[in-house]
């Protein structure tokens, strides 16, 4: 049986986390995940990727609160192998 920690909220939130298993959920419960490429991908100038509307927007001064862009983001482009391996 595989058990993972369940947490809701911000990254690194581990206070009060409890181990859960599939049997903690009803049989007809569907798990789902979602992500947004701009927030995780990074590598804005690699692999033939062209500028997106969000690249143009975030590089315009004053458009984001702290000047953040998705140029690196969480850098999934370079880290995907580590992410995939961590599930096995």
TrEMBL record:
The keyword Cytoplasm does not apply. GO terms for molecular function: beta-glucosidase activity. Coiled coil: none annotated. Pfam families: Glyco_hydro_1. GO terms for biological process: carbohydrate metabolic process. Keywords: Hydrolase. This is Beta-glucosidase. It comes from Rubroshorea leprosula. The lineage of its organism: Eukaryota, Viridiplantae, Streptophyta, Embryophyta, Tracheophyta.
């Amino acid at each position: 049986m595989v058990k993972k920690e369940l947490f809701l909220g911000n990254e690194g939130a581990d206070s009060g986390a409890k181990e859960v298993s599939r049997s903690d959920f009803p049989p007809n419960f569907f798990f789902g995940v979602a992500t947004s490429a701009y927030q995780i991908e990074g590598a804005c100038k690699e692999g033939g990727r062209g500028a997106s509307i969000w690249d143009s927007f975030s590089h315009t001064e004053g458009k984001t609160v702290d000047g953040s862009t998705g140029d690196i983001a969480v850098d999934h482009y370079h880290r995907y192998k580590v992410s995939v391996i961590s599930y096995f």
